[in-house]
Design goal:
single chain, about 270 residues, alpha+beta, 6 helices, 10 strands, about 40% helix
């Protein structure tokens, strides 16, 4: 649902910009001057976009319930407990990987990670702003000197979306800090690799974190840690799928006990190669 959530968020941001009131919680078309017909029409379209977006979310909600209440069936469909199928080469730059009944098509190209991930990061920043989560991104500026990496852009974006969806879901679960409300925080950092050509991406938060004993278990499809499974609904698929896609692109995805920003929650590291 993240793309739908992003559309809804951008619709609201557009409304605020049209009303010239960036801090308004709700913006109505009546707040725009009747003489400004262009902005009133744009506001009407923004309202319609939000309305239709919420309608689609309502329509797919039963699918979420189906996945959450029948997780085992979903896991079997996605290949839980099955061995990975052999690599099938189709062409020099297009590869299919099968895991159980899952089939992915990869188109590999050399790209600058800040260029292909920057728009996604800024979309999640807008989502987090709407939800009261402090989201910081570093290294995604176009002028960043990260070297190029060889990836399937679509799958790299999907893997990062899975990680950010998890961070948003769990970051509120940690108890309040002593003496004041705890602000949920997420930070994404993109850096050049230290020892090999390529780039490293860190996704950190100050949520409940991932216990060391679960650092590998969380990649098993369907597994959810005892420290969070009673707090937030989920199906335990996102991290395993993200790791599969990153490894299919000759990268690595792992849980670290602490990240470069020492935020106290989960830290996930993705390493990509040229």
């Amino acid at each position: 649902k993240s793309p739908l959530q992003a559309l809804r968020t951008y619709g609201k941001l557009l409304q605020r910009q049209l009303a010239e009131d960036p801090d308004a919680a709700a913006v109505l078309i009546d707040r725009i001057s009747p003489n400004n017909s262009q902005n009133r029409e744009a506001m009407r379209l923004a309202e319609e976009m939000i309305s239709q977006n919420e309608r689609v979310v309502d329509l797919i909600e039963p699918l979420d319930d189906l996945v959450n209440h029948h997780g085992r069936a979903s896991q079997l469909l996605l290949g839980v407990g099955t061995e990975r199928s052999p690599l099938l080469l189709k062409s020099s730059d297009e590869t299919d990987f099968a895991s159980g009944s899952e089939l992915r098509q990869y188109h590999f190209e050399t790209v600058y990670p800040q260029d292909v991930l920057g728009p996604l990061i800024y979309t999640y920043q807008a989502i987090c702003r709407e939800q009261g989560i402090h989201f910081v991104a570093a290294g995604f500026e176009p002028e960043n000197n990260c070297p190029g990496v060889t990836v399937s852009t679509k799958h790299l974006q999907e893997a990062l979306s899975n990680l950010l969806d998890n961070a948003i879901k769990y970051v509120r679960c940690r108890p309040r800090a002593r003496g004041r409300p705890r602000i949920p925080r997420i930070k994404c950092t993109l850096l050049p690799n230290e020892h090999r050509d390529g780039a490293t991406l860190y996704v950190e938060d100050n949520g409940p974190g991932i216990p060391t004993i679960d650092a590998e278990k969380v990649f098993v499809r369907g597994y959810r840690g005892d420290n969070v499974k009673l707090l937030v609904e989920g199906n335990g698929l996102g991290l395993g799928i993200a790791r599969e896609m990153i490894e299919d692109m000759n990268g690595t995805l792992q849980i670290l006990p602490v990240g470069p920003n020492k935020m106290g929650g989960a830290t996930i590291q993705i390493t990509l190669l040229c």
